[in-house]
Amino acid sequence: MSICLNKNEVPMIPDACPVCKVLLRSLDKLAFEYCGACADCAQSFVDVNKGAWDSGWRPSKGEIVARLQKRKEEPFFYVNDEYI
Ligand SMILES: [Zn+2]
Question: How many angstroms does the Cα of residue 68 sit away from the middle of ligand 1?
């Protein structure tokens, strides 16, 4: 989801999260503007370590891989039991 105002500009928002490398979605725009990462990284890494994040800390590759493994187990579409 690159957002550019014209073709000569560097994208303001990259195609993938700089932390986990997952493609950014439109819902990640606010998180990216907030912390430079996707919404999931913002929730999983930034919010729980905001002070460290602001000081330059980033999760290790192992922490990122563990989070991505957990994301694979999570459904991406939630349905209320009432409609099943
Ligand atoms: Zn991310």
Answer: 9
